[in-house]
Write a structure and sequence with these properties.
Elements lengths: L7 E5 L21 H8 L3 E4 L14 H4 L7 E7 L14 H10 L3 E6 L7 H4 L2 H12 L7 E7 H6 L4 H4 L4 E5 L9 H8 L8 E6 L11 H17 L4 E5 L9 H13 L1
Parallel strand pairs: 1-2, 1-8, 2-3, 3-4, 4-5, 5-6, 6-7, 7-8
Length: about 270
């Protein structure tokens, strides 16, 4: 029988890549790798994201892919990385690389587009472009690869018309960028479940307040986790994704709170 832990994902990024972003104001020094993050939390599903510092990096040489030492069950990779990331010259995304990985790695089951409504991305990745990406992922090799998006509560608050784009995805990973908006999680989730045809949502769980560039309070962290647990138990979300290996070893109390929460799920 599947446990709740089977529905938990860790978002893993290159060590130090978040400390390089101005405005995040992260304390300490981040040395933890995504695989070390999986082992520390006891989580077995990894979403591997590319940041600006990863431009030019190939997943074919990433230890997360080629040398995971058996600590991973499921793998999601970025098709389009963070808003500061850029694909290889002459390319629009990392599709060719991901389809090659699909041939050899049975754990790879989803591709994700990050920071989708940032900057001019909606103009570059039109609904027609997304439809073609989805087609390639669904119809390549022996099994369909799922197509996921990253969507923030701020689009809900702003009233952004996101449906022409989001309806091209199989699943929404829904994130609260500003921690004060954790208080309205129910409303944001109800909105998030309307963004795709089948209403599939993985709830993102930040362990740092990136919107305000400061540590998340214990109260808000616990509120996020309590809400997530409730929705997991009721089957109202498909899973939860913890963010991220880049802030797990820098002295945040939220990491300890999350680890205790995970221990209770086992």
């Amino acid at each position: 029988m599947a446990s709740l832990m089977d529905k938990i994902w860790l978002l893993g990024e290159t060590p130090g890549s978040h400390h390089a972003v101005k405005g995040y104001n992260l304390p300490g020094v981040n040395k933890m790798t995504p695989m070390e993050g999986l082992e520390y939390f006891g989580v077995r599903n990894l979403c591997r994201m590319k940041m600006r510092s990863d431009m030019g990096m190939t997943y074919m040489e990433d230890p997360c892919i080629v040398d995971d030492k058996g600590v991973m069950d499921k793998l999601c990779l970025t098709l389009v990385g963070s808003c500061a990331w850029r694909p290889k010259e002459g390319c629009r995304d990392d599709m060719d690389e991901l389809l090659e990985i699909a041939k050899r790695d049975k754990r790879f089951m989803a591709a994700i587009n990050d920071d989708f409504f940032s900057g001019n991305r909606p103009e570059i990745y039109t609904p027609e472009v997304l439809r073609q990406q989805r087609y390639e992922l669904h119809n390549w090799f022996e099994k369909p690869i799922e197509f996921w998006s990253v969507i923030y509560e701020r689009e809900h608050i702003k009233g952004t018309d996101v449906l022409p784009w989001t309806m091209e995805y199989d699943l929404t990973t829904l994130w609260v960028w500003y921690s004060e908006n954790v208080a309205e999680l129910q409303g944001h989730l109800e909105w998030g479940k309307k963004l795709t045809k089948d209403g599939r949502v993985i709830l993102g769980v930040y362990m740092y307040d990136y919107g305000n560039g400061c540590p998340i309070t214990d109260d808000r962290m616990k509120r996020q986790l309590d809400f997530t647990y409730e929705k997991l138990v009721k089957g109202e979300i498909e899973g939860a994704m913890l963010h991220s290996s880049c802030n797990m070893d820098i002295g945040l109390n939220s990491t300890l709170i999350t680890k205790e929460w995970l221990e209770a799920l086992k």
